[in-house]
């Protein structure tokens, strides 16, 4: 008869893991600004590790960036998720190149440019959601994160045309952020136009 006690135990353990998973999912849905910008550092660490020929470290840091990107996309929208998933595939392709000792600087730059801009777009969407909820300060923080990620991506642009196109978008976002900071009242604007600018920039670069 004791053998059957195994099955209730399995059910209890399974339910416990499910509860932990749901808690973790709900916890991550409240995205912090630190989490929203953490892939920048992981990607920088991965690139430095590649230069130092510490390839295991580079893959570990890249995996950490990918994990954070997946958490970020939970708080964004379907378009941001599409961009992030595409960027993750680019990063995984670079990981394969590292494992095969055939890393291409061009592929690395392309993957980083897409990764940073996909995260930037996701944070812009999250900024919009915060402003819709009346959380102006959080909206500004996530918009500032968008700028930070886009500025970082300039180092990996394929050509001057892509770089100049992105600089224009960055200036537009900075202008909006400046107006939000300077306004004594709740500055309202339509995110659609700036979202479209970032979308088009990402699509053109792929």
From TrEMBL:
The lineage of its organism: Bacteria, Pseudomonadati, Bacteroidota, Cytophagia, Cytophagales. The chain crosses the membrane at residues 6-25. This is Four helix bundle sensory module for signal transduction. Keywords: Membrane, Transmembrane, Transmembrane helix.
